[in-house]
Known about the structure:
Elements: H1 13-32, H2 36-41, H3 49-77, H4 79-99, H5 103-116, H6 120-130, H7 136-161, H8 168-187, H9 205-213, H10 216-246, H11 251-280, H12 282-299, H13 309-338, H14 344-370, H15 379-407
Helix pairs in contact: 1-6, 1-7, 1-8, 3-4, 3-5, 3-6, 3-14, 4-5, 4-8, 6-7, 6-14, 7-11, 7-13, 10-13, 10-14, 10-15, 11-12, 11-13, 12-13, 12-15, 14-15
Amino acid sequence: xxxxxxxxxxxxxxxxxxxxxxxxxxxxxxxxxxxxxxxxxxxxxxxxxxxxxxxxxxxxxxxxxxxxxxxxxxxxxxxxxxxxxxxxxxxxxxxxxxxxxxxxxxxxxxxxxxxxxxxxxxxxxxxxxxxxxxxxxxxxxxxxxxxxxxxxxxxxxxxxxxxxxxxxxxxxxxxxxxxxxxxxxxxxxxxxxxxxxxxxxxxxxxxxxxxxxxxxxxxxxxxxxxxxxxxxxxxxxxxxxxxxxxxxxxxxxxxxxxxxxxxxxxxxxxxxxxxxxxxxxxxxxxxxxxxxxxxxxxxxxxxxxxxxxxxxxxxxxxxxxxxxxxxxxxxxxxxxxxxxxxxxxxxxxxxxxxxxxxxxxxxxxxxxxxxxxxxxxxxxxxxxxxxxxxxxxxxxxxxxxxxxxxxxxxxxxxxx
Length: 416
């Protein structure tokens, strides 16, 4: 990018286009969240809770293995072709899940979706390409807002379409991803020129990991992010089953709740985060966000129709979303700032690979904790699941405190 790009305005056309690209991509992803447990649990699949957990996990296992690869390929060959091919692949994955008539084919669709959905780091690298270091936190907050917007429309669309057939949301997500890929192909400019690609010797993945994690700051930020995503993913997996058991909610009701939380996420990450990061710094926001998440996760099992009702559920959900909306983009911004311009895709790919590992492990942990001896959930299993997630966030808060100490005085006011 030009050396004087810091003088350019923030809302450039490429940034707006990548925002729309990520938004449409996340709408398709958001459609699946409130639908998948009910879809897999009914004929012809009749999946057990453990198998449903595996369906969640296999998607993230694929992201874990392929996110660094896509990030590295985007560093080498450009962001645009990697984003185009991956989003096109997501359309195929949604379509396979929609037409599936057996649990094996449903797993195949999730595998395809996981491999091609490992493009988060590439989109983040694109944002890093088209923003200055001073604008980086704001750009990552905008990226988070795209997630939030996706979770506003995605679950709402799932709630509206599911009465017309359980397959319909999957077909809609496939069509949306296909249109998104075509629009990206024609309208998204490349942010990284071929001449910028590293001509140096290509290193192995484990050599890259060893080099990156030899840096204390990089290790602390990634550890905190890994713990945060683990706890949040346990909650995401358990939430639909929790509301179904405690409140009697189905796919439509959960879709609308996720829509509400998406609104909170958009406001927090799109508007509030940038302002707070300017005055308090990313590392302080990480600490505060982790503490808020620990407290809300611990409180979740104590609410129900006779203990606060829907209002309590929405309030705790909103606070949990606020904490996540502060900590997640703050950690992403920190990783971006401590990485060289030539390794943005690789560094963010490693970060998202760790997040994918957390999302793969979390449903397995949740599946064990949420099930009792009879293979179902009860009040005791609900309590231990959310309290385990809370304990993980306490450890994340401790790691965030160490992270703050590591960054203090090194990267200026916007960090410490």
